[in-house]
Design brief:
Blueprint lengths: L2 H6 L3 E3 L2 E3 L3 E3 L15 H13 L3 E7 L19 H12 L4 E6 L17 E2 L3 E2 L10 E4 L2 H20 L4 E6 L4 H6 L14 H4 L1 H14 L5 E6 L10 H13 L4 E5 L8 H4 L5 H7 L3 H9 L1 H4 L11 H10 L3 E4 L6 H9 L4 E4 L1 H5 L3 H8 L36
Parallel strand pairs: 3-13, 4-5, 5-9, 6-8, 9-10, 10-11, 11-12, 12-13
Antiparallel strand pairs: 1-2, 7-8
Length: 405
């Protein structure tokens, strides 16, 4: 086996925990919830499969830190009443020696939730709510100090519940157009106070969230951050911004940075690459107005980014040169040679989404076949829209079978 794959499959420390290998199941919104917006046993079985397959850590996706942090009212938010299922999930994956992380994500103005507790969705600035406008949510409410403190408290409570339930880490979502990313992006942050303008100011609230969570969970509990390195939008987050975001997170004691790109609300294909997810999204959209709107903006919003291996590597290498903390590569690691290269270039962990959906036993098969392993993901991206399917996200291809060189 090559040196790079040996490193990938070897144990590694992440602050106060040790993962049995460096492969982390990325957050891929499960959509396996009951009528009370709680994770089902099916969701637990979903993560159990990756644990059985040998991943070092798996990630429970899109855990909203408050009810208004959900894009739709049916989505999950973390609260005391769902602790038993969260504990069951943690106990299940731990029984296979796998660690568990929870991704904490607040949608902010990226909301279609008509069951809001507040009057309006919240965001960095008051303005038109493009995503929610067809659902009667026309305006985003800019956050004052009181609202900021409310939202921070939600992040803190969520992290503490996760820790209490046996989660081994939390992942704060700083990317893909969600609330913390909305503060970082000049497109959505139009503030004139010390929370807007320079990248240091735009990072002020996101760093307040990190600092508050760190104070609550303690110095040894791993905190990860998923960032948008760049969004490929005029006036949006630049690569230079992404480097500064990583540096500031590093200075504030982040334990690991996951380096993604793009935004779910304006340029989603940048974070996927490959076949467009638009046809699949249209098939699940119940609102005729929303379908019409998605078709109208289809070409401009769902841009063409042909798939290639390691499609986010050049940006990630710039982050590697700028920070000392753990870096977790994501983006185009279907081939074992790509995983090998990422390790050889000095990255610490790999997050995998689609390849693990394709083959939940990826770790075992890498150990067995090494560089001859063939994953078989076709980057058709038909899995992604299944986050809206009651049966949950999954690979649509036939079950994985060995196909080696």
């Amino acid at each position: 086996m090559s040196t790079g794959l040996e490193k990938l499959l070897s144990p590694a420390k992440l602050n106060g925990i040790t993962l049995k290998n460096r492969i982390i199941k990325a957050a891929t919104f499960e959509s396996m919830l009951d009528d009370n917006s709680n994770i089902t046993d099916r969701c637990i079985e979903f993560h159990k499969e990756f644990a059985e397959g040998g991943v070092g850590m798996t990630t429970l996706a899109y855990c909203a830190p408050e009810a208004d942090g959900r894009m739709l009212a049916s989505y999950m938010y973390i609260r005391d009443e769902i602790k038993p299922q969260l504990k069951k999930l943690a106990d299940t994956v731990h029984s296979y020696g796998t660690k568990l992380s929870g991704q904490i994500a607040h949608c902010g103005e990226f909301s279609r939730n008509k069951a809001l507790q507040r009057k309006r969705p919240v965001g960095p600035s008051t303005g038109f709510n493009m995503v929610g406008s067809l659902y009667g949510l026309l305006v985003t409410q800019g956050m004052d100090r009181a609202l900021m403190d409310e939202v921070i408290a939600g992040y803190v409570k969520t992290a503490l519940i996760m820790k209490e339930c046996g989660f081994d880490a939390v992942e704060l979502h700083y990317g893909h157009g969600y609330l913390l990313s909305q503060f970082i992006s000049p497109i959505t942050n139009k503030r004139k106070d010390n929370y807007g303008g320079t990248i240091e100011n735009r990072m002020r609230f996101p760093l307040e969230v990190l600092d508050a969570v760190r104070k609550a969970v303690g110095p040894d509990f791993p905190i990860l951050a998923k960032i948008t390195m760049y969004d490929d939008l005029k006036g949006g987050i630049s690569m230079e911004d992404g480097i500064q975001v990583a540096k500031l997170l590093d200075q504030h004691g982040i334990d690991g940075i996951i380096m993604s790109a793009g935004t779910s609300s304006q340029n989603p294909m940048l974070l996927f690459h490959g076949d467009s997810i638009l046809p699949g999204l249209l098939s699940f959209e119940k609102s005729a107005f929303m379908r019409m709107g998605m078709k109208l903006v289809g070409k401009s919003m769902f841009r063409d980014y042909p798939y290639k291996e390691l499609f986010l590597l050049e940006g990630a290498k710039k982050i590697r040169e700028a920070v000392q903390c753990n870096l977790i590569y994501i983006g185009g690691t279907i081939e074992p040679q790509s995983l090998e290269k990422v390790m050889d270039l000095g990255f610490d962990f790999v997050q995998s989404g689609r390849p693990l959906l394709r083959d939940p036993k990826l770790v075992q098969h890498l150990q067995e076949y090494g560089l001859n392993y063939k994953n078989g993901c076709t980057h058709c991206n038909q899995c992604a829209p299944l986050m809206n399917d009651p049966n949950g996200i999954r690979c649509v291809l036939p079950k994985w079978e060995a196909n080696v060189n």
